[in-house]
Amino acid sequence: xxxxxxxxxxxxxxxxxxxxxxxxxxxxxxxxxxxxxxxxxxxxxxxxxxxxxxxxxxxxxxxxxxxxxxxxxxxxxxxxxxxxxxxxxxxxxxxxxxxx
Amino acid sequence: xxxxxxxxxxxxxxxxxxxxxxxxxxxxxxxxxxxxxxxxxxxxxxxxxxxxxxxxxxxxxxxxxxxxxxxxxxxxxxxxxxxxxxxxxxxxxxxxxxxxxxxxxxxxxxxxxxxxxxxxxxxxxxxxxxxxxxxxxxxxxxxxxxxxxxxxxxxxxxxxxxxxxxxxxxxxxxxxxxxxxxxxxxxxxxxxxxxxx
Lengths: 100, 197
Description:
Largest sheet of chain B: none
Number of domains of chain B: 2
Oligomer: heterodimer
Low-confidence stretches of chain A: none
Radius of gyration of chain B: 20 Å
Mean pLDDT of chain B: 87
Shape of chain B: elongated
Strand content of chain B: under 5%
Distance between the termini of chain B: 55 Å
Mean pLDDT of chain A: 78
Structural class of chain B: mainly alpha
Order of helices and strands of chain B: HHHHHHHHH
Largest sheet of chain A: none
Strand content of chain A: under 5%
Number of helices of chain A: 5
Helix content of chain B: 55-70%
Helix content of chain A: over 70%
Largest interface: A-B, 37 and 44 residues
Number of strands of chain A: 0
Number of strands of chain B: 0
Structural class of chain A: mainly alpha
Number of helices of chain B: 9
Low-confidence stretches of chain B: none
């Protein structure tokens, strides 16, 4: 016998159980929605401000690192590099052979 | 008496909630409370207050509101949050180790004895005892199976309705229903073997 057959004990039990109606009120208790809305909005704001704070901190750190890297490599940046032609010639074995 | 209340503007309300309008948030809670509380009451784990659970569901809803893309009706989306939250609480509580005659009240034991030994319907005045008994039997099932069989057999929802509420596909729901019924079948066989004391 299967539990979904009508004469199965389970079917007869659930059939009887369905006769019990739930008459409880389904409206929100007084103040519930106001309290919850305030809490939800505050929570959301907290998350946003946390994100903002971290984002600004990350931006500040990134700017600092960029300035630091410019300062550290300043001397390299200011010295005149090889001209583009010289640089090409140095890496090109054919140009080296022709020069000699 | 005709209902003069204008229909609830859900889309407008959601837009205002996204702009952090507290009044709109309150209206949304008031609008959805009946839906959420019905789910909570149907699947309320022992020792958890229904107000605490519904509050948790609404807070989750507000936190995840940005993720709602409108692919399913909003009420289904909220139902899924409610169902998942209830299942999480059911999982967190330990299942009762076994179902025993000794744990039943006198009326519950009588009702169970009647359905096991004869094929008569349960008398109407024993409906409450049958209701309690069914809930005690639900406690013996895994939370997911319990939820499916409760919706199918007690709330008489269709597979499609359960799928819409839970987000599970119909095959999974059928598997869970099958598993729950097999477990119930075993329970009844066990109860028939053991004598009522």
